[in-house]
Amino acid sequence: xxxxxxxxxxxxxxxxxxxxxxxxxxALEKGPDHVTVEExxxxxxxxxxxxxxxxxxxxxxxxxxxxxHLERALERMRSAPAEESxxxxxxxxxxxxLRDLESEGELSRRGELIMSSPALLYQLxxxxxxxxxxLTAALAERLGEPVxxxxxALIVSAAGAACRVxxxxxxxxxxxxxxxxxxxxxxxxxxGIDPAFGPNN
Amino acid sequence: xxxxxxxxxxxxxxxxxxxxxxxxxxALEKGPDHVTVEExxxxxxxxxxxxxxxxxxxxxxxxxxxxxHLERALERMRSAPAEESxxxxxxxxxxxxLRDLESEGELSRRGELIMSSPALLYQLxxxxxxxxxxLTAALAERLGEPVxxxxxALIVSAAGAACRVxxxxxxxxxxxxxxxxxxxxxxxxxxGIDPAFGPNN
DNA sequence: GCAGCTTCTTGCACTCACTGCAAACTATTA
DNA sequence: TAATAGTTTGCAGTGAGTGCAAGAAGCTGC
Lengths: 201, 201
Prior knowledge:
Largest sheet of chain A: none
Protein name (chains A, B): TetR family transcriptional regulator
Shape of chain A: globular
GO molecular function (chains A, B): DNA-binding transcription factor activity; transcription cis-regulatory region binding
Number of strands of chain A: 0
Number of helices of chain A: 10
Oligomer: homodimer
Keywords (chains A, B): DNA-binding, Transcription, Transcription regulation
Strand content of chain A: under 5%
CATH topology of the largest domain in chain A: Tetracycline Repressor, domain 2
CATH class of the largest domain in chain A: Mainly Alpha
Organism (chains A, B): Kribbella kalugense
Mean pLDDT of chain A: 89
Helix content of chain A: over 70%
Radius of gyration of chain A: 19 Å
Distance between the termini of chain A: 59 Å
């Protein structure tokens, strides 16, 4: 892991990580709604005010969101081979993130935690929505479609839905790995969720 | 409109409506982030504490969420003819809600407001998630599928995604009516969002 | 019409999230 | 080592949201 820059940079990264760690640990221990920012800050040995210099919301710290993920996703999207179908690109993007989270060994626990707490889910959605907008824009450009067209937006958004469904189902059936559930969802989306659809038959 | 029950009942409905109205009006006027509960309560001529007796979150009042919608949706889902395909049922459910919102004459303004405010969008999603769970359960039962299966959950969730995409697109292109955008999304979901999908080709 | 019950409203005190500001502190750079 | 630029912190303040207990108001039986 590249420890670039001077002491200052390193300290910032350290503090950020310490806050995220403490936040996740405490949230797992006491339930996300019963952790206060004060506790998190104390556990990370900084002041409350400093906490807010790093994370604007309590939930951000617990989610420990890595901005790098979005960056990589956008990059992957832009550099995808021309013949790769859009949902396939999304699939790679999603699995890339999953790989990262898994290697941190917290995919499952964190996923469960997220799905169990409205506030967390909500914050995750917040960032998802922002991400979705950017991913949609990137995908639309890649497909050469106008900004207002439905398909790219729907592909991104439906892929997000598939991920959320996968997490939710994994929570109730932990024996089915998330990847498998995600793949199933993507497969369904790809081929059509309901070929018999026809409200005006 | 049936004014059931005694004075008490009516007053409660009145207060609830007054709060929702004031909340929406003020949110449209000053932007949702610059309205305080105090103002809303004052405009509705009740105390702040009373506000919270009706809505547990400020955003709920602005969304003015009608619990009746979910009820009707579940009812529609349960009583759907056996041969109606699942996404078609969702379509009717969605259009039923749209009709209601339209008749209140606020679909567009409220939709725009919601899409423009993270806090509102999150609250909407939160309630959506709750709704989605119930709708998913109902749909799974109707399809005779086990609770943990992917398809019903994905159908409900993807339909929600289509609605959100429709609102988002409508915001940037107000000339395209929401219904039309919703239909386009449903059509795509039904037939398959990406027939060429195949990460393991 | 009133006593007694239930339900709704309100004020109050409190916790907690979050923000702006200015002072103190610390790495960096010349 | 002195100037500078970035970081941390305390403090004061706003606003959301909750629990509690007292009072107001609708309801019910007489």
